[in-house]
Design goal:
Length: 305
């Protein structure tokens, strides 16, 4: 990477990659990513809504001998480094886990590394064994969940995707995103020019209105990865009597084992984008039945606009 990406660029650039070159991770990247795994496994949830959620534990397994040992059913090729995450069973446990792992994936994109979320196509027993082996050597006061739920290969993607990778992308229609208006109500889609100017730095976050900033944050949700590209995130604007934006209500259109991870990933993108603009917000979950949906109350915009 010859320049530092801002978070919008990392979100817009990230793609799932399933073919990796033999190039090894640098010592600096390995050290940084290991410390990020620790930090993200230890930091308390920064929003009241997830106070009760169990922290996930993420481990970096480097230089795994072959993908035959740490199997991915032939879906991933060439990867020798993996993040392995154990997380709790409840909806809020999975939301928090989704947020934490996606934060790590975006950091990888910023370093020029490729990744791919795996919630199904990995050998449960082999990765559980690898996780248990590393976990045994790390002690601490907090009792983490033990069952591995997500695996993510990390490394340098090859220039060209191999045939299987192209087929996988076609099977889950990875390049077919729902439109902004299919997903979100009550907010107009941001212009492509605004996105690219914010990425290049020709428009500063402080020059953008709250309305446009929230639209960009929702666009960042639209670009998120999701299991089988299901894109289950739906959102609606809340407004006061004068029409000012007061918040965004998210709900989830699917109900399966990975839905809450998908929502956690979306919240990660949304929160990181709101922070980029200096928007102060609260994430609220009023009733457990709303889960994995959540309400984001827009409290204050630090922008001058
Ligand atoms: C929670 C979750 C689980 C996933 N599980 C798998 C998986 O088991 N195997 C796989 O090849 N891809 C998996 N993916 C990757 C998705 O297929 C991919 O994110 C989606 O097709 C969109 O493509 P993109 O990430 O390139 O934008 C998963 C993604 C998420 C978010």
């Amino acid at each position: 990477m010859n320049h530092k990406m801002n978070i919008l660029e990392a979100i817009a650039t990230r793609r799932s990659r399933r073919t990796y070159s033999q190039q090894v991770l640098t010592h600096a990247d390995t050290t940084y990513l290991s410390s990020e795994c620790r930090r993200l496994s230890e930091a308390p949830a920064y929003c009241h809504a997830l106070d009760e959620a169990k922290l996930p534990k993420i481990i970096l397994q480097c230089n795994a001998v072959t993908s035959a040992k740490l199997g991915t059913y032939g879906i991933i090729k060439g990867a020798t480094n993996f993040f392995i995450m154990a997380s709790g069973e409840s909806e809020s446990d999975k939301i928090l886990a989704g947020m934490r792992m996606e934060s790590l994936l975006l950091a990888c994109t910023g370093l020029g590394l490729s990744t791919c979320w795996l919630g199904g196509t990995y050998s449960k027993s082999a990765f559980q064994e690898a996780y248990d082996r590393i976990n045994r050597t790390q002690t601490g006061n907090y009792t983490y969940p033990e069952a591995v739920s997500i695996v993510v290969p990390v490394g340098y993607g090859t220039e060209e995707p191999r045939f299987t990778e192209k087929i996988m992308r076609r099977l889950c229609q990875a390049d077919m995103r729902k439109s902004f208006s299919q997903l979100f109500e009550g907010v107009a889609s941001p212009t492509p020019q605004l996105m690219s100017q914010l990425i290049s730095g020709t428009t500063l976050p402080s020059d953008v209105t709250t309305e446009d900033a929230v639209a960009v944050a929702l666009e960042c949700v639209r670009l998120a990865p999701s299991s089988t590209n299901s894109q289950p995130w739906r959102a609606e604007a809340n407004r006061d009597i004068k029409g000012h934006l007061t918040g965004i209500t998210f709900r989830c259109a699917t109900n399966n084992r990975l839905s809450a991870f998908d929502m956690g990933i979306a919240y990660c993108h949304f929160i990181k984008a709101l922070r980029f603009f200096g928007i102060v917000f609260d994430m609220e979950i009023e009733r457990p039945t709303d889960l994995p949906g959540a309400f984001f109350k827009i409290r204050k915009n630090n922008n001058t606009v």
